[in-house]
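Hi there,

I know you've been waiting on this one. I reran it after we fixed the sequence typo, so this is the corrected version. Both the input and the resulting structure follow.
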Amino acid sequence: MGRKVTLATCSLNQWALDFEGNLTRILKSIEIAKQRGAKYRLGPELEICGYGCADHFYESDTLLHCFQVLKSLLESPLTQDIICDVGMPVMHHNVRYNCRVIFLNKKILLIRPKMLLANYGNNREFRWFSPWSRPRYVEEYFLPRMIQDLTGQTTVPFGDGVLSTKDTCLGSEICAELWNPRSPHVDMGLDGIEIFTNSSASYHELRKADHRVNLIKSATTKSGGIYLFANQKGCDGDRLYYDGCAMIAINGDIVARGAQFSLEDVEVVTATLDLEDVRSYRGERYSKVTKHHKPYTRIKTDFSLSDCDDRCLPTHQPVEWIFHTPEEEISLGPACWLWDYLRRSGQAGFLLPLSGGVDSSSTACIVYSMCVQICQAVKDGNSQVLEDVQRVVNDSSYRPEDPRELCGHLFTTCYMASENSSEDTCNRAKDLAAQIGSVYIHTNTHTHHLNINIDMAVKGMLGIFSMVTGKWPQFRAKGGSARENLALQNVQARIRMILAYLFAQLCLWAQGKPGGLLVLGSANVDESLTGYFTKYDCSSADINPIGGVSKMDLKCFLQYCVKSFQLTALIGILDAPPTAELEPLTDGKVVQTDEADMGMTYSELSVIGRLRKISKCGPYSMFCKLIHSWKETFSPSQVATKVKHFFRMYSINRHKMTTVTPSYHAENYSPDDNRFDLRPFLYNTQWAWQFRCIDNEVSKFAKKQPY
């Protein structure tokens, strides 16, 4: 009868400018799609060059190499008898477009440019591309000579067209077009297009996956039809992790889905669906719909997605999408990102200064989660992961089976004690390191690994200062000023950074092993927001897996690790008050705490951070919102004090964000200065006008109070 179609979409772990590797992964996905009987294969956005090329998109080399890869795809026997839909930049009339190139049997059928560009959050597509601004308009594109010689075509259709096969019609959306209030699938559905495709480079944020799924379900609920979603996966060279979730939906139901987090470089999702289900669904709803727009240009191709005899072919049924909890997302996403970074960086493992606090323990647990995923992938037969592990540990016979044992190969932790460190934090760090299996370098004289006394380095630095100035600074607890107190804390923190990099470079050398280690950071998003860290201290690392995660989420994550990984050492870490341990102890006990230093709790900071970034609040607007949401806890004057205190801290310390360690992007209120949160770093920290507006409102509230 010829009405059932088998379609394929995929998630690919592409790497910016890795044309060789990207080509291999594209061909692998096409091969798998054909093996499963698919007649159409959709890939991620800009999959040929990788989405994260950034200013490399300006280079003519990038365009040239994309066409060279396209030529290889056209030539490959694997691409025969299947419609292939791939993503690459194309220059047309000297204007650069983000395009889909759709081809079949060595003939390009259509080049469809992106019409609605993403220019928010981490996306800056307007910097490199122009949107196609002519809806339903198609013109000729002159192919490069290398493609002409292969296909025998001089020109091909370029623009907002759709593909018409002998049995159905397909139309493209590209990533952000799904999220736009004027999504093309609405008009395409009204014009009879039955299959919508979306190639994306959609990155992970905590609690975001359900939005993506709901948009696709909504698109096919209101328009009817089949919807294919392809996405990039993994770290393609920067702070983002693209989190897969390739899926296929029909008439409001998800019928096939891929993983959100995995170590598979190529994941193909296929489904067999009945076109008559789309037609029946629409027949009831579209009977009185009037079309007001001109029809789409249909590019006709002599090819069918269905077979004549398909009566016995079963169709896919709806599946339930169970979303990860935020704690699971923190465990999985940053761990996959770390693995991609490690295997592609050519380094031999990680080094982490482990303080015994929530933040560094969270980083350690993410590395342990990475090891859990690696062992599981090897157990499941992932040959690429096994090959990568063997290369990283420099042992071609090694086969990881136990995460704790693998941690001992890949992960080194160190506790850098000073005279201000307590035995409690020392023991907590030691216990956690033992449970996860990391190589543990303990800088306290009570240990059996390396005996490093950080106090000697601190005194040496202060001795140089004293020799030049004739002064010896003192802590506040010993009569020193605030400036002396802060400087003494900073010198400890910065010496720790120097030692971390020294051991990262030479640890393996000292053991007679090749390679170096990547230094991991552990400053959370809230500390970055307020600048509650020392510039060029242990927060200065190569990469930071928790830099986009809030303190409150990290605490929940550690509770999850206690249950999921049986890391009972975390219980004591969670019970202890967060502290930097940079000021003198009192009777051997810590008196310095983070929340006291910051003047607000981490819970309050999380609320303020979301108002600043997500709600776009300045000091005055933030005050006006918080006097209502915090009215049960604080008076208007107390709210004003907290808002002013935050903005003073934030503006004084914003300069630190210009040098902060590259961090995994996980939170939509991240203060990352690279491209997500663009702000000045030299402020007038008095905020005179803004704070005066707040004071005026406080005065009005005071006058309303009964005597």
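Quick highlight: Residues 44 and 231 are 5 Å apart (CA to CA).

Best,
R. S.
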